[in-house]
Amino acid sequence: MRRFFIAASLALAFPLTSLAAPVTVAGVKYDDTAQVANTKLQLNGAGLRLKAIFKVYTAALYLPAKATTPDAVIAQPGPKRMHIVMLREINAAELGKLFARGMEDNAPRDEFSKSVAGVLTMSDIFFQYKKLGAGDSFTVDWVPGTGTVITVNGKVAGQPIKEPEFYSALLKIWLGKSPADSLLKENLLGRTAD
Asked: What is the DSSP string of 22-42?
């Protein structure tokens, strides 16, 4: 009986929700939850994007519920968030082009064709920023009823992109059959540890 009271006291003093810890990737801390459109999302996974030997950026995927396959991530209803923090300077317009190419390489033709207006909008947003430096960040949120909202360094950039196919195609840059980085894909899906 005494053990029960000790265990109950510890549970009240240290609730399970406080046991979840932020994740740090290449010095970038990602909280275990994020708020999007009045919905609390949980960190699904986070990882590092490498190109050759260079650390390019870190990325984190937030979802309403954990998912370990690309199909489960994309099919999941409700808000979603992809948050990226740059680790080196990059030409923002070039990054927009790389994302567009990644979407085209990974999305089925019909899905990509429905995303073209969104791809152009995203390219325009990145073109306006000229460059992103180490420490700069951007967030791409899916907000049901609103669309894809892109935020750069904490400020909303451009108008929401309404087509749901755009967000699905965008996620496939990292989660598709030819991802930008296969280890990052595994990390975003929570299937490996850094």
From this structure: -EEETTEEE-SEEEETTEEEE
pLDDT digits over 139-172, tens only?
999 999 999 999 999 999 989 999 888 999 999 9
Pairing of strands 39-51, 90-91: unpaired
Rounded to whole angstroms, the Cα distance separating 58 from 107 reads: 22
Distance CA 124, CA 111 (A): 20
Best mean pLDDT range from 18-32, 111-125, 152-166: 152-166
Distance of CA 174 to the CA centre of its chain: 9
Q: What is the mean pLDDT of the chain?
A: 86
Strand partners, 84: 59, 138
Give me 101's structure tokens. 């190419």
Host H or E run for residue 44: strand 39-51
Q: What is the pLDDT of residue 21?
A: 66
Cα distances from 128 to residues 96, 109, 131, in angstroms, run 11, 28, 9
Give the separation between CA 45 and CA 53, rounded to whole angstroms.
22
Q: Which pairs count as long-range contacts for 134-140, CB under 8 Å and 24+ apart, including other chains?
A: 134/86, 134/87, 134/88, 134/89, 135/85, 135/86, 136/85, 136/86, 137/83, 137/84, 137/85, 137/86, 138/83, 138/84, 139/81, 139/82, 139/83, 139/84, 140/81, 140/82, 140/83, 140/84, 140/167, 140/170
